[in-house]
Amino acid sequence: MSEAVTRPSATRTGLLASLEPLLREWLPRQRWFAGKGRPVTGLSLVAATELLPSDGRVGLHHLLVRAHQPSVPGAPPHPGDCYQLLIGAREALPPRLAPALIGHVQDGPLAGRTVYDALYDPRPADVLLEALRTRARVGVLRFEGDPRQEIRSRLVPRLVTSEQSNSSVVYGDTFILKLLRRVVPGVNPDLELPLALAREGCARVPAPTAWIRAELNADGADGYVLGVLQPFVQGADDGWELTLSELAKGEDFTAEARALGRATAEVHTALAAALPTVTLGHASLEPLVAGMLERLDAAAQAVPALRPYAPALRSAFDALAGLAADGHTWTAQRIHGDLHLGQCLRSPSGLWSLIDFEGEPAKPLAERRMPQPTVRDVAGMLRSFDYAAHSVNPPAPGWAAACRDAYCAGYADAGGLDPRADPVLLRAYETDKAVYEVVYEARHRPDWLPVPLSAVRRLASPDPS
Predict the structure, then answer these.
(1) Is the entire prediction scored with pTM above 0.70?
(2) Which end of the chain is less crowded, N or C, counting CB atoms within 10 A of the terminal residue's CB?
(3) Hey, what domains does the chain have and what are their CATH numbers?
(4) What mean pLDDT do residues 412-428 have?
């Protein structure tokens, strides 16, 4: 690979200072920026690595930057989220890179250059793949991978432009590189779990080919997982888009829902074999239920439309606590953590795969890595069918109910335990998910609020099935 990539880090004094005025305007406009609604008051540099020299035709800087914002009222002080940025630098941008524009730098080491989001540009994207192919070490960056998998060079890159909470680049319909935008130190489940599943031979999740880490300390502590390269499932349908398409055509989806249930159970079975499981009894379930009740109370305060249903919804959590008090126990294990139709792919052969094991990015990493009942993933998928059914006019609640039953039946086919056999646990997790959705939609998409509220009405009824 080129000297520009393999030479040591070339961090220059004043780089972030020169970029900060531009980044403070640009960051909040990005889909993956987590702190929307609050101004960026400052930026601090966590790490900077020069991947292509600034004085070349195309410069490339890899930055880990912490964005400082005012604290949320009532919340404890926050050090600021850390973001991964790939900053390209050119004298002028060609028209094809106009959507990537960050701005024109006035001073500092990039003075007079135009900077932009480098993932839109094939040349910087090539640099990342070549670094992964050669297992390069550049400054704090570590490009690592599975030695049994070969990465070919000269694969044409293209940025995935659909709405995402991270960024993805496809290389020649062979690989897809997911670059995490908001990063935290520690073991990221988006790499940890697919690697564990690969060791178990689970074909439902593409096995990681290579990955990128930042190693900030010599002992490897406080490292960040920055990206994962996996095989690209060519011609695959996104689960959410496929569902909406079939629903709009009036097609029956129960066979697909059943197959998706089998895929989910196979992943859960492999995760239970690969990683430790624990037993949840009264003592361990008590804080879990307390968290559900706390989220319900906070949601009822924030969204007045939820308040009439709050007492009945509390009964779902109280019933779960009652079972635990009577000595009932449950198994907890590592799960997907944020499962819905958009996290699933169906290959042209009809095989369903699960992707994006990052979990809910807003939650602390330690919480995302905790063992949990598998029904939490199941509840997320059941809610996703409900969302799909309310995306058409008129809504199709009967379609959703049929898909829910088929999914649970498929899960039982492969996992041996029908989620409907534990209705108290399933209702509690569905209720918790619907409460979360109510708050999210009220804040971000008020037009969608009727969707989770319809689920709330069902879950608050005497017979929530």
Answers:
(1) yes
(2) C
(3) 3-231 (no CATH), 237-459 (3.90.1200.10)
(4) 94
